[in-house]
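Please check both lines for our workbook:

___
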Amino acid sequence: MEENQQTNVAQPAPCEQATQPVQPAKPVELAPNSHLVWAILCTVFCCLPLGIVAIVKAASVDALWVQGRKEEAKKAAKSARNFSLWGTVLSIVCYLLFFLIYCLGFVLAGVTVGAAENLMGL
């Protein structure tokens, strides 16, 4: 019987539980996407200088977030994305220009060969 009395004493009364205020849960904010994969792919396949800057920016995102510098982490993530984007766009434009100049060279070479053949009477 003494054991029952001890367990009843150790448990809080129902009215004590109801009077404790309930704290609302804070929403958990996730770290921004660092775009590290895109930065690495941009470096390897596209534009080396802009890709390296993107990798440096992307690598700093998680460290800044852990330090509590959330705004700086968001800015670094945005910068990494922008540098990767511009590196990719710049590479595509350069490849297209190279292809056009290459094709133009063949066209002009064909015209000059044809003109030379006409002059020589072949």
Remarks:
- The radius of gyration is 34 Å.
- The chain has one domain: 31-120.
- The chain has a mean pLDDT of 84.
- Residues 31-120 form one domain.
